[in-house]
Fold these 4 entries.
Entry 1:
Amino acid sequence: MIPTGLKEFVAVVENGGFTAAANALDVSTSFVSRQVMRLEDRLDTRLLHRTTRAVRLTDMGRIYYERSREILDHLAVLESDMADLQEHPKGRLRITAPGYYAEHFVAPVLVEFTSKYPDVTIELDTSMHLVDLVADGYDLAVRMSPPTDSSLVARKVAARRMMVCASPAYLAKHGTPKDPEELREHNCLSLPEIHWRFMYPDRIRNVKIRGSLKSDNGRMLVAAAVKGIGVVRFADYYMRNEISRGELDPVLEKFEVQDAATWIVYADRHHMPTRVRLLIDFLVERLRAMDEQSIEVLQK
């Protein structure tokens, strides 16, 4: 923070008087005079000899002017550097995003981002572990649900359509469920969970599921479903290739909830580093475009 009166004092010295300094700063002469007097009062030192014909520095004033000029020069360089960083961001970014989504969606965007901003270093954590952004030192997270921590900001990237799928062979053998409650009689291959959520006309219901295979490795579960072992439920993007190839068929589509989404989560900071702000905007734009492409693939 620049001390009160410092800028006005320097202007008086460099412009040769109070009136000229006021003109240079586009303020009144009386304002410049008051600011310099307050500066002298705070320092308890006279900085300027004032006469009706001229203004000149005292010995202490000369020393203070030289140091003040250095401060203002450093600030000018700093402001120039900050403006340059707006165009050429630098520094490290730590990001966390879950496995498959990170690999197939987030990672390609980050590659594109580093190509555009080569002075930014990116560290991507693709584990399924839910990290503490602030405590663990992450700049942002891509998550499949909004945060429960009110100190974090969540920006919605795109809607996710949840889908229950099974192979044509499985459905031919075990029948196609017409109601989510019928899943109780099917082999549901799932993450470590015991309920799937569905939208009924009156409310959302949790349907208890059971199955012969549980894992936090979703690709294994999808592969098992393709083999006809059971039923799976994931976001549309996760199974779009299997669906487009006819290896999996969606069922119970009219019962799917519509509140699933992908979110970018970050700490609420008033002065966000430029590199973080740029990456957030970049991710939102690219991930939304990818989401639209995924919808087009599934609709074909």
Note: Confidence is low (pLDDT under 50) at residues 295-300.
Entry 2:
Amino acid sequence: MPLKKPFIGRQPELKKLEALHRKANPVLAVIKGRRRIGKSQLILEFAAQLPKYKLWRFEGLAPQEGMTAQSQRDHFARQLSTYLKIPPLTFQDWSDAFNHLSLHVKEGDIILFDEISWMGAKDLTFIPKLKAWWDKQTVPIFVVFCGSISTWIEENILNSAAFFGRVNLTLTLEPLSIPESAKLLKARGFQGSTYDCYKLLSIFGGIPWYLEQVKPGMIADNIIKELCFEKDGLLKLEFNRIFHDLFNGKGAVYKKILEALKDGMKTLAEIRQAINFAHSGTLSQLMEHLIIAGFVKKQNLWSFKTTKPLKQSLYRISDPYMRFYLKVIEPKSTKIDAGAFLDMPLSSLPGYETHIGLQIEYLLFQNRSLLLKSIGISPADVVCDGPYRQFKTASAQGCQIDYLIQTATNNLFICEFKFKREEIGVNIIKQMQTKIKALKIPRSFAPVPILFCLGDVSYSVDTGEYFYRVINITDFLETTPA
């Protein structure tokens, strides 16, 4: 028998599901999140902890040319027939399919509609018939709607009149934290250095399925080469698969948006100009789709004095893998297909170490709670925080802060990220002083410089009085998640 995959993290989510299952009436949960984030695995783990109840898992077919509503019903029927150990069934109508399922489920059973958006995308009657079936339930069953196309779930279930007031629990799964990801790497047999561990995490971004591809006995660069720099590498092919499955072959404009953001944060106007998009309201809608999908983050800039959002907002890629693919893998795609990297060390790639440093920044942005905890800031004391950009005006210089935190006590924690193999020297102090001098800070506020680093820091920087904290992110690998 194959070994059971290690299941790490998701304890708060499991507790919520367990509490909901104890209710003496039919309950409905919705789980959404980025593809490969572990939605289905969460339910499989949850069901495994309740062995006396049966798990019925029905998965929609991934979209492809020629797919019809009947294709989805036939696939549902085949899955149901397998559970019942009977010859294949045929349903011409979703109501018949759901009602037939009801004949066999028992109290406490768990029913998972996996990739439900694929299941119902081709049939406009799917949602009303699913709602009608749900409203007839009297036996206390546990039903879960699960899917990667979060926009479809938002529009058709969470914000739909059909299921208004009927959803008992909504979970949006986030990437695993840095310590959880490191724990999963160790469980997969990875034994590399701290720097090599961060190399992997900075590309995989806490996505469980990516972390599970790690093979024991391999060093980080060889793992990355196999997954990203070989013709049929899983992460070489992953980007196009995601966009095909999530956007049903219509992902070209979404990809253009991400390409515009691969070099850093941009305003909506800058994105519009970069992709030559017409002046209409649909770009904002497309950005919202990417945000809901988990690939982009909207960063509101704010006034230090009023704490109110400014007119300008910034958008940035929030998914480390997406950024690495667009910035590093795709530009080398032709050479990868020709096998150019099979015998080439990754360290010989121009700017590779710099790319890894930037990737680690993206990873840290996903782990906000770790950043705050390491500085000693309670989330309750944070007024506003995030990457910060000050636009150049007649009265102010332009500057960009890696991460800025404004607290209720009028402190501005100005954080710099530095991840280099060589020792960080006193030049970092001059760089910080230049940034702080350019930043337009009200008189009643105090700038507090923070340095996040990976590797060695010179004695004068580490023990000096300039930085409020010098935080080595090595410690995050063993930190208890906040």
Note: DSSP finds 21 helices and twelve strands in the chain.
Entry 3:
Amino acid sequence: MQPNFHLAAEAVCPGCQIGPIVVTNSMVIMLVVMIALLLVAWLVRVRLSAVPGGLQNAVEMIMETLEEVVQPALGKYATRLFPLMASFFIFILFANWFSLLPLVGTIGYIEGEEGHRVLVPFLRPATADLNMTLALAIAAFFVIHVSGVSVHGPLGHLKALSHNVFLAPVFVVIELFVIVSLSFRLFGNLFAGEVLIGMASWILPVVGVLFLVLELLFGLIQATIFTMLTLSFTSVSISGAEEHG
């Protein structure tokens, strides 16, 4: 049976839904990642020590690295926005890496489609679902522009974006394409990785392992790109705050 790939996420099982909401295989991974991250945060919190152990040390290293990137870009607003930027990076990174676990995309139920029997996986990468990446991009869009409005005010932010009242509508449309850019870049790379690993594993398992290792790197790169773009756009949005303040 050849691997089967769909752009849209599938129901985790026939008839699986909560009211009008269909429970999809990508939604399950999203929940697993969120619960795992919350569990790690709770473990670090309850075992917090002046002399950090292995888990606390790893978490502190990640947070300090992110802080070194966010602080210079956002200045005095870094403290306020750091939790959001760190959340984007950590969630996307581990959502990408969770997609490489052995059970993801490999176990499921058989369904007939166009005269063929296909495997519908119980688990599918969360960031290989356009709904997930679109939600992240919309959240990033709001972070960018709410930050600008909070610093400059609504009219000041619009003026900072367009520099010309007559060109304001054009610049507003351009800004809306940030959502498209962020969501499709992340979705496209992760979905392509899912397809490559699936096809390579089906044709030659050794090649599949090689792509698996590369996807670890690509997962880190994509989380970094999304976060850095959001950080850069936010920095531009609040630029001039020192002069305005």
Note: The beta strands are 17-18, 21-22, 108-113, 116-121.
Entry 4:
Amino acid sequence: MPTKPDGEVEYRMRQEEKKALLDVTSQEWKAELTRERYRNSFVRSLRGTIFALITVAAAAVLVAVLLLPVLRIYGTSMSPTLEEGNYVLSVKGSDFKTGDVVAFYYNNKVLVKRVIAVAGEWVNMDEDGTVYVNDVKLDEPYVTDLAIGQCDIELPYQVPDSRIFVMGDHRSVSVDSRSSTIGCIADEQIVGRIVFRLWPFGGFGAIH
């Protein structure tokens, strides 16, 4: 049988090696291209996710600051309704009625009290601390210690225009509209109406 010259065999071997090398190089290139595409896709997806999270967080902060401020209770002036360390949710607004619990600014602090009367109404109290609005006794199941407290205003007292008269539920210790130091609360002082207790979980629920 005739044999091929050594040179031709060697040439064909080199060609086959080149072809095999090209096949390997092509496969590696395709694999690298796939990895690069995946990496770019992952980076784009990660950027999108981060942007979405930042947007949601910013929106949550804006809502919390502008519409639904979360406040921490300090002191015992609203006990037993609210205790020190409670976290509560408030809602922006200015249309209040007797019995609402509101937060307001006073001397760079935020105080929380209960609305007793609104503009134009008359507030009066007995010596034992029983409260009357327009000569009608208030039903106050949230108060456990009736007391006239720190009261230096002349009774009966008419609430001025664009003001609300507030008192703490813990009447013997609360400093509120009964004291001329604080007085009635103006609309621009209001942070919002307290509607929900967030913490502790055992007290989670609406505020009445």
Note: The chain has two domains: 1-66, 70-206.
